[in-house]
Amino acid sequence: MTHGHFTAGAPAPDLQTAQAAHRRIQSFVHRTPVITSASLDRLTGARLFFKCENLQRAGVFKTRGAFNAVYSLSDAEAARGVVTSSSGNQAAALSLAARTRGIPAYIAMPKIALKSKVAAVERYGGNIVWVESQGAVPTAEEYEATAAAIQARTGASPVHAYNDLRTIAGQATCALEFLEQQPALEVVLAPVGGGGLLAGTALATKCLRPGTDVVGCEPEMADDAQRSFRTGRIVRDFQPRTIADGLRTALGDLTYPLIARYADDVVTVTEAGIVSAMRLAWEVLKLVIEPSSAVPLAAVLEGKLAVAGRSVGVILSGGNADLDNLPWRP
Question: Are 94 and 82 in contact (CB under 8 A)?
Answer without folding.
Answer: yes
